[in-house]
Specification:
Layout (H helix, E strand, L loop, with lengths): L2 E6 L7 H14 L4 E6 L1 H4 L6 H17 L8 E4 L5 H10 L4 H5 L2 H9 L6 H4 L1 H10 L5 E3 L5 H17 L9 E3 L33 H9 L16 H13 L2 H12 L5 H27 L2 H30 L5
Parallel strand pairs: 1-2, 2-3, 4-5
Helix pairs in contact: 3-13, 4-8, 4-14, 8-9, 10-13, 11-13
The structure holds adenosine-5'-diphosphate and tryptophan (TRP).
Length: about 325
């Protein structure tokens, strides 16, 4: 049985990219592996959320986790800050992480471009905190989207470095994992490569978006004047709509519009109308479950408490052993 760890920052609500890139795989993996799925609220502090918003965002994501079919009896579902052992391992790993390699990380460069007035040390050391999350449970597999591959590479570097420095074979080498398929990337509705809440809220479809909002967002998706030649290659924005349709609609529906594109008879308005309906249908069960869970605070509180206990048991064992390996001794 493999140990599986993954986390999501509570920066709002979950969108289709999060679902296909991460959570759908969590749901599949909980059936046979020993899974730890958490809400990365320490990580979210790198963007300075207002204290009055933090709890609500964590609760949103926990409810949306549950709405996707994550089962607290099968997997350990927890909140990162309920397991402060993570913060201790992060401190220890930072002693052994080099500023140069952290500065070269693509996500760091992107983030400082995005928030030039808040280039805090937590942003720089984001990868060591993420490594701590993963290796605190001695994970083998990490289900994440393609954008997280470099962080996983750094996690392996830190884990190996620890093993070499202390001449132990303690931490396994975790790998990015996608259940059976290639790592997926759900594109954005604005023509960009990645659906993302951090980049453009309106380009993302959230699991809890009401049907009329979904229809509007899909109708507004970027397109062009139409194909100029038969069987031509699709520009990015058009490729995006087709990619979303592939994920959401029946294969025959996808083929129907693809054939129309290739024969230059396509009307994007019709295609988007169909896609909007298919997204509404796909997301309906999530919306319903989210509504039910919001009405049951006690259940959600019970889930969080159980998760904290299970995650704490695993993390405190690792920290005890790591302290021993490093040479901390009790008097
Ligand atoms: P965002 O970019 O919207 O802030 P996060 O960075 O919080 O999303 O991503 C959380 C998880 O969802 C990660 O595992 C990430 O790889 C995955 N993910 C996010 N957006 C996409 C996407 N468009 N396609 C596939 N996976 C995605
Ligand atoms: N960095 C991840 C993201 O932005 C979130 C995350 C934090 C994570 N710690 C993790 C993912 C550990 C997997 C494992 O999506």
């Amino acid at each position: 049985m493999s140990i599986v760890v993954s986390g999501i920052r509570p920066t709002g609500k979950l969108h289709l990219g999060n679902y296909f890139g991460a959570i759908r795989n969590f749901v599949r993996m909980q059936e046979k592996d020993n899974c730890y799925f958490f809400i990365a609220d320490y990580h979210s502090l790198t963007t300075h959320p207002a204290p009055e918003d933090l709890h609500g965002s964590v609760k949103n994501v926990m409810i949306e986790f549950l709405s996707c079919g994550l089962d607290p009896e099968k997997a350990t579902l927890y909140v990162q800050s309920d397991v402060p052992e993570t913060a201790e391992l992060y401190l220890l790993l930072n002693m052994n992480a080099y500023v140069g390699e952290l500065e070269r990380c693509t996500s760091f460069k992107e983030k400082i471009r995005y928030q030039p007035d808040n280039v805090n040390a937590g942003l720089l050391t984001y990868p060591t905190l993420m490594a701590a999350d993963i290796i605190i449970h001695k994970a083998h597999k990490v289900p994440v989207g393609k954008d997280q591959e470099q962080h996983l590479e750094m996690t392996r570097t830190f884990a190996n470095r620890f093993n070499r420095l202390y001449k132990v074979d303690y931490f396994p080498e975790p790998v990015a994992y996608n259940f059976g398929d290639n790592l997926v990337k759900i594109p954005s509705l604005d023509g960009g490569l990645k659906m993302s809440k951090s980049e453009n809220e309106n380009s993302a479809i959230f699991l809890n978006d009401p049907p009329e909002v979904i229809r509007k967002k899909v109708m507004r998706a970027v397109t062009d004047e139409g194909p100029k030649q038969v069987n031509q290659e699709k520009p990015q924005a058009i490729e995006n709509i087709f990619a979303l349709m592939k994920a959401m609609s029946e294969p025959s529906v996808y083929d129907f519009f693809n054939d129309q594109y290739n024969s230059m008879t396509i009307r994007y308005g019709d295609m988007k109308k169909q896609l909007g309906e298919d997204v509404v249908r796909f997301t309906e069960p999530f919306r319903e479950k989210i509504r039910q869970l919001y009405a049951d605070e006690q259940y959600v509180a019970k889930v969080v408490k159980l998760g904290a206990e299970k995650a704490h048991a695993s993390a405190s064992k690792t920290i005890r052993e790591v302290r021993e390996i490093i040479g901390f001794k009790t008097f």
